[in-house]
Amino acid sequence: MKYLHTMIRVQDVDAALDFFVGKLGMTEVRRKENEAGRFTLIFLVADQDLAQSTAERAPELELTYNWDNEEPYGGGRTFGHLAYTVKNIYETCQSLMDAGVTINRPPRDGRMAFVRSPDGISLELLQEGDALEPAEPWVSMGNTGSW
Predict the structure, then answer these.
(1) In this structure, are residues 115 and 95 in contact, taking their beta carbons and an 8 Å threshold?
(2) Average pLDDT, whole number, for the chain?
(3) pLDDT band at residue 77, thresholds of 50, 70 and 90?
(4) 3-state SS string over 16-84?
């Protein structure tokens, strides 16, 4: 068995791509428009997985946009979150905040933070390697919303 991708449904392709590509820095590697089925599939890859994805089409994040869906997708309790490592948790969180993203669980420990996509998908961001030394403003920042 081999892991391929995780699929999430999105209401607004532009908002989802702004978040995942524009703010998180993922790369769109392919897109499939299915006129008969009235859906679009967009496959994204984290920068450190790009070479592997090119060779194996994995690991990827699949954004599914159903053209005719007008109802918001509800969040199920069985799905938890997507998780990614980042080179510097503080710089990543600051960049996301500067771009208007709410940090739901700040990296007070220098290791872990949570944010949500425009569709409410929870993302865990983990410091690559050892945790950074705790630093302000993160140490004093409280949680916001759910994560």
Answers:
(1) no
(2) 94
(3) low
(4) HHHHHHHHCCCEEEEEEEECCCCEEEEEEECHHHHHHHHHHCCCEEEEEEECCCCCCCCCCCCCCCEEE
- Strand, helix or coil for residue 115: strand
- The pTM is what? 0.89
Tokens encoding 73:
């997708």
Catalytic residues: 124
Reported as a single tens digit per residue, the pLDDT across 126-136 is 999 999 999 99
pLDDT tens for 48-70 read 999 999 999 999 999 999 999 98
Within 10 A of 104 (CB to CB), how many other CB atoms are there? 16
State how far the alpha carbon of 77 is from the alpha carbons of 38, 40, 51, 102, 119, in Å.
27, 25, 33, 21, 15
Distances (CA, A) of 147 to 117, 126, 143: 11, 14, 9
| Residues shown for the chain | 147
Q: How far apart are CA 61 and CA 70, in angstroms?
A: 22
